[in-house]
Design a protein that fits this description.
This protein has about 325 residues and is α/β, with parallel strands linked by helices. It is built from 14 helices and 10 strands. Helix 4 crosses helix 12 (about 260-275), helix 6 runs parallel beside helix 7 and helix 11 runs parallel beside helix 12 (about 260-275). About 45% of the residues are buried. The structure holds S-adenosylmethionine, 6-(5-methyl-2-OXO-imidazolidin-4-yl)-hexanoic acid (DTB) and iron/sulfur cluster. S-adenosylmethionine (SAM) binds near residues 121, 172 and 242.
Amino acid sequence: MNDSLLSTAPAAETAQHSPATRHDWHQQEILELFELPLMDLLFEAQRVHRLWHDPNKVQLSQLISIKTGGCAEDCAYCSQAASHQKGTGLTATKLLEVERVVAAARKAKSGGASRYCMGAAWTSPKDRDMETLVAMVEGVKALGMETCMTLGMLTDKQTAQLKDAGLDYYNHNVDTSEEYYGEIITTRSYQDRLDTLARVRHAGINVCSGGIVGMGEAREDRAGMLRTLANLPQHPESVPINMLVAVPGTPLENVEELDPFEFVRTIAVARIMMPTSEVRLSAGRQSMSEELQAMCFFAGASSIFYGEQLLTTPNPENNKDLMLFKKLGLSPA
Ligand code: SAM
Ligand code: DTB
Ligand code: SF4
């Protein structure tokens, strides 16, 4: 269906500079999108989605935690902050060996993932770790997979080293609105995050940046987070929208659950505001029904985290996802 439209859709790189991508969003008009009757919002999101994406394809990214726990930051949602580990009981690990990471990537590729995303519980990498990180990027790339890393803040030199190694994407989330940010993280500022994103963009690495919803924030904050992302000089190529995984022992363990329709609305508004980006239905799928996930795809989600583990928490098994894809007529991009 819709083959003629799809075959003429411009490549996402070209589209980034098309008039369809706006960078001057106002809070009020974003809130007006959120307030639309759900059917109108979904219809508009799906219309925009079809201009730039194949509606029946979903990109699969797989995660690995290359260094777990013991993190000096205090992100309230995170199981890996050293200050929450007494409560979460998580065991910290050292940086994994390159061979182990490449072997796990090979397995992810044979399971169907096209991008491998390596995450470390760091404020920022140490220079002494760069050689290992570079070898990981080279090893995973050599398998023919896209590479992504999320390591915290980077210096210019580290960014250049990762670019030279062939890193395709760098993930660094703004997490929430500038206004709500201080309720969630006190150890580094919103501006620190924007600076890292600018550094990654400047180095010519694709940007992956999104955030988390369901952390007790208001709709204004969800709108504000999307405003920050869409008003960057260039939209992030990937926008992960995470539903909070409320990990026991973290300060957010008892936060009130977000209404699932509000989650769908957030995906739809992200799709409308950043039409050419990949919008990723990210953490939280383990506790979502198939129907809710299907609604997220209709709202414009074009990608998921695939594989039975996220970083420290579970994700649906491959078979379960593949069965859902079959029921919905979706296929991996
Ligand atoms: N330490 C690095 C950093 O924070 O930049 C990289 C890894 S960190 C775990 C990557 C992202 O995962 C966070 O920015 C957050 O958006 C997401 N995340 C972490 N814990 C989560 C949770 N419990 N639920 C949903 N998303 C989570
Ligand atoms: C992102 O936005 N979500 C991923 C990835 N980027 C690094 C991480 C989700 C983590 C969920 C909680 C956990 O497994 O620890
Ligand atoms: Fe550390 Fe990243 Fe977790 Fe924050 S989200 S505590 S920076 S691992």
